[in-house]
Amino acid sequence: MLDPNNSKDLKLLEKCRQINKEIIDFGVSDKEIIKIIELLSFELEDTDLMRSIHSLLKKEPEDIKKEKIVIWKEKYMSELNEEEFVPQDISEFYGKVKLLIESMEEDVLKANKGNKAAGVRLRKSLRYLKTVSGDFVKFTLGK
Q1: Closest by alpha carbon to 125, among 94, 100, 106?
Q2: Which of 2, 31, 51, 59 could anchor a disulfide with 9, C-beta 3.0 to 4.6 Å?
Protein backbone atom coordinates (compact mmCIF):
# COMPACT_ATOMS: atom_id res chain seq x y z
CA MET A 1 0.00 0.00 0.00
CA LEU A 2 1.06 3.55 -0.62
CA ASP A 3 1.95 5.50 2.49
CA PRO A 4 0.99 9.20 2.58
CA ASN A 5 3.74 9.78 5.13
CA ASN A 6 6.38 8.52 2.68
CA SER A 7 7.61 11.28 0.34
CA LYS A 8 8.29 8.75 -2.44
CA ASP A 9 4.64 7.66 -2.42
CA LEU A 10 3.15 11.16 -2.55
CA LYS A 11 3.39 11.48 -6.35
CA LEU A 12 1.90 8.03 -6.79
CA LEU A 13 -0.95 8.89 -4.43
CA GLU A 14 -1.64 12.07 -6.39
CA LYS A 15 -1.67 10.06 -9.61
CA CYS A 16 -4.18 7.63 -8.04
CA ARG A 17 -6.39 10.53 -6.93
CA GLN A 18 -6.32 12.00 -10.44
CA ILE A 19 -7.30 8.67 -12.00
CA ASN A 20 -10.09 8.30 -9.44
CA LYS A 21 -11.32 11.85 -10.17
CA GLU A 22 -11.37 11.15 -13.92
CA ILE A 23 -13.45 8.02 -13.41
CA ILE A 24 -15.90 9.80 -11.11
CA ASP A 25 -16.10 12.85 -13.42
CA PHE A 26 -16.86 10.48 -16.30
CA GLY A 27 -20.14 9.73 -14.54
CA VAL A 28 -20.30 6.14 -13.40
CA SER A 29 -22.89 4.27 -11.35
CA ASP A 30 -22.12 2.08 -8.34
CA LYS A 31 -22.44 -1.04 -10.49
CA GLU A 32 -19.97 0.38 -13.00
CA ILE A 33 -17.52 1.27 -10.23
CA ILE A 34 -17.71 -2.31 -8.93
CA LYS A 35 -17.06 -3.65 -12.43
CA ILE A 36 -14.07 -1.32 -12.83
CA ILE A 37 -12.68 -2.57 -9.51
CA GLU A 38 -13.16 -6.14 -10.69
CA LEU A 39 -11.42 -5.48 -14.01
CA LEU A 40 -8.53 -3.67 -12.34
CA SER A 41 -8.11 -6.50 -9.86
CA PHE A 42 -7.32 -8.82 -12.79
CA GLU A 43 -4.21 -6.71 -13.34
CA LEU A 44 -2.82 -7.40 -9.85
CA GLU A 45 0.29 -9.52 -9.54
CA ASP A 46 -0.79 -10.72 -6.10
CA THR A 47 -3.29 -13.49 -6.92
CA ASP A 48 -4.35 -13.89 -3.29
CA LEU A 49 -5.33 -10.24 -3.17
CA MET A 50 -7.16 -10.60 -6.48
CA ARG A 51 -9.14 -13.55 -5.12
CA SER A 52 -9.95 -11.63 -1.94
CA ILE A 53 -11.29 -8.73 -3.98
CA HIS A 54 -13.41 -11.07 -6.09
CA SER A 55 -14.83 -12.84 -3.06
CA LEU A 56 -15.70 -9.46 -1.56
CA LEU A 57 -17.37 -8.31 -4.78
CA LYS A 58 -19.55 -11.45 -4.85
CA LYS A 59 -21.04 -10.63 -1.45
CA GLU A 60 -24.36 -8.91 -1.01
CA PRO A 61 -24.26 -5.15 -0.20
CA GLU A 62 -25.09 -5.77 3.49
CA ASP A 63 -22.24 -8.29 3.72
CA ILE A 64 -19.88 -5.77 2.10
CA LYS A 65 -20.90 -3.12 4.63
CA LYS A 66 -20.21 -5.55 7.52
CA GLU A 67 -16.82 -6.44 6.00
CA LYS A 68 -16.00 -2.73 5.68
CA ILE A 69 -16.90 -2.22 9.33
CA VAL A 70 -14.72 -5.15 10.44
CA ILE A 71 -11.80 -3.81 8.39
CA TRP A 72 -12.32 -0.34 9.87
CA LYS A 73 -12.44 -1.66 13.44
CA GLU A 74 -9.26 -3.68 12.90
CA LYS A 75 -7.46 -0.70 11.37
CA TYR A 76 -8.55 2.22 13.52
CA MET A 77 -9.06 0.50 16.85
CA SER A 78 -5.54 -0.90 16.58
CA GLU A 79 -4.29 2.60 15.70
CA LEU A 80 -5.69 3.79 19.02
CA ASN A 81 -3.20 1.60 20.80
CA GLU A 82 -0.27 1.90 18.40
CA GLU A 83 -0.01 5.27 16.68
CA GLU A 84 -1.91 8.49 16.23
CA PHE A 85 -4.12 9.13 13.18
CA VAL A 86 -2.71 12.03 11.11
CA PRO A 87 -5.21 13.17 8.46
CA GLN A 88 -3.99 14.94 5.33
CA ASP A 89 -7.17 16.99 4.80
CA ILE A 90 -10.69 17.59 6.12
CA SER A 91 -12.29 14.99 3.85
CA GLU A 92 -9.95 12.27 5.14
CA PHE A 93 -10.87 13.19 8.71
CA TYR A 94 -14.57 13.23 7.78
CA GLY A 95 -14.16 9.76 6.26
CA LYS A 96 -12.83 8.50 9.57
CA VAL A 97 -15.80 9.99 11.45
CA LYS A 98 -18.25 8.57 8.91
CA LEU A 99 -16.75 5.09 9.14
CA LEU A 100 -16.81 5.28 12.92
CA ILE A 101 -20.53 6.06 12.89
CA GLU A 102 -21.22 3.30 10.34
CA SER A 103 -19.27 0.84 12.45
CA MET A 104 -21.64 1.44 15.35
CA GLU A 105 -24.77 0.39 13.44
CA GLU A 106 -24.51 -3.31 14.19
CA ASP A 107 -23.99 -2.65 17.91
CA VAL A 108 -26.93 -0.21 17.93
CA LEU A 109 -29.24 -2.85 16.48
CA LYS A 110 -28.01 -5.54 18.87
CA ALA A 111 -28.18 -3.24 21.89
CA ASN A 112 -31.72 -2.28 20.92
CA LYS A 113 -32.63 -5.98 21.13
CA GLY A 114 -31.18 -6.18 24.64
CA ASN A 115 -27.63 -7.41 23.96
CA LYS A 116 -25.66 -5.96 26.88
CA ALA A 117 -22.22 -6.60 25.36
CA ALA A 118 -23.26 -4.65 22.26
CA GLY A 119 -24.36 -1.81 24.55
CA VAL A 120 -20.92 -1.76 26.18
CA ARG A 121 -19.21 -1.69 22.76
CA LEU A 122 -21.58 1.04 21.61
CA ARG A 123 -20.83 3.24 24.61
CA LYS A 124 -17.09 2.72 24.10
CA SER A 125 -17.46 3.72 20.44
CA LEU A 126 -19.52 6.77 21.41
CA ARG A 127 -16.84 7.91 23.85
CA TYR A 128 -14.27 7.50 21.10
CA LEU A 129 -16.54 9.38 18.65
CA LYS A 130 -16.74 12.26 21.15
CA THR A 131 -12.93 12.44 21.28
CA VAL A 132 -12.60 12.18 17.49
CA SER A 133 -15.27 14.87 17.00
CA GLY A 134 -13.35 17.24 19.26
CA ASP A 135 -10.16 16.51 17.34
CA PHE A 136 -12.04 17.11 14.08
CA VAL A 137 -13.20 20.54 15.26
CA LYS A 138 -9.63 21.44 16.25
CA PHE A 139 -8.34 20.16 12.90
CA THR A 140 -10.80 22.32 10.94
CA LEU A 141 -9.74 25.33 13.00
CA GLY A 142 -6.10 24.61 12.21
CA LYS A 143 -5.07 23.94 15.81
Answers
A1: 100
A2: 2
User: Which structural domain, as residue segments, surrounds residue 9?
Assistant: 1-58
d(C-alpha 46, C-alpha 129), whole Å: 36
List CB contacts of 62: < 8 A, sequence separation 6 or more. Answer: none
Of 88, 90, 118, 93, nearest to 103 (Cα)? 118
**134 and 78 within one domain:** yes
Cα–Cα distance for residue pair 42/71, rounded to 1 Å: 22
51/66 same-domain check: no
Residue 69, φ and ψ in degrees, nearest 5: -65, -45
Whether residues 49 and 66 fall in one domain: no
Decide if 81 contacts 74 (C-beta within 8 A): no
Per residue in 32-74, pLDDT tens?
Answer: 888 898 889 888 888 888 888 888 887 665 555 555 555 555 5
Structure pTM? 0.44
DSSP 62-91: HHHHHHHHHHHHHHHHHHHHH-----SSHH
